[in-house]
Amino acid sequence: MRLILASAACLALLGACSNGEKTARYLIDPPSSGARVPDRLGTAELKDVSLPQYASGDEVSWQTEDGAVRSNTKQLWADTPQRAFTQTLARSISDLSGATVIAEPWPLAEPPKRRLEVRVEKALAQADGNYRLSGRYFVSNEGAGGANHARSFDISVPLTNDGPAAIARAQSQAIAQLARQIATLSGPGRAIATSSAPVPRIDDIFSQPLPPLEGS
């Protein structure tokens, strides 16, 4: 009898632990980008965004007053943070400017004119009540005579209240601001002119037609 009761108790405990309704998942969903800007990117491939370790996990993280970064196993992102950040940023830049920005791998037959890389140094709901998104982005031109850009960004969005829902909203707003900055190629940094044509890629070389045989 005791064995039956113990088994029933274990099953009840496991059922409570596996209750999906007790786990909350939050989306990255930037607001409407507002006024459109001119297309300065054309076609661009966005590499997977580089995130800090604490921001790349499944759990929503925040900073407490003691400076520690904490999280809760019941408060998760609805998608892999790197994938969600990358895909959302690409779509936001495209919607804002009309450029064709697509996350890697590039799916179209015609290669992109530019490559875009974003390296995030901080993506955190800070103890001071602000969500901060900072780092650098790089735009490389694939043709000779084009401009390459290396610029910084440091975006701060006030948190409306405590909790993961407010963090998700603030992060979404920060990504929208970053999309506008990249679309306009703005921010501290520099532009470097490309002086020579890029080295052909292996797949480009073998995609060219072979020369005719001698005497044919």
Using brief descriptors, characterize the structure shown:
single chain, 216 residues, alpha/beta, six-stranded mixed sheet, 5 helices, 9 strands, elongated
Described by its quaternary structure, the protein is single chain
Fourth CATH level, the homologous superfamily = ABC-type transport auxiliary lipoprotein component
Biggest sheet record: 6 strands, mixed
| Spatial strand order of the main sheet | 5-2-6-7-8-9
How large is the share of residues in beta strands?
25-35%
Helix content: 25-40%
Point out poorly predicted stretches.
3-8
Shape: elongated
Cα distance spanning the termini: 93 Å
Tell me the number of structural domains: 1
Number of separate helices? 5
β-strand number = 9
N-to-C SSE string, H for helix and E for strand: HEEHEEHEEEEHEH
CATH top level assignment: Alpha Beta
Question: Gyration radius, to the nearest Å?
Answer: 23 Å
- CATH topology grouping: Rossmann fold
Q: Can you give the mean pLDDT?
A: 85
Quickly give the structural class: alpha/beta
Protein name: Lipoprotein
Domain ABC-type transport auxiliary lipoprotein component: 26-183
Pfam families: ABC_trans_aux (PF03886)
Organism: Paracoccus kondratievae
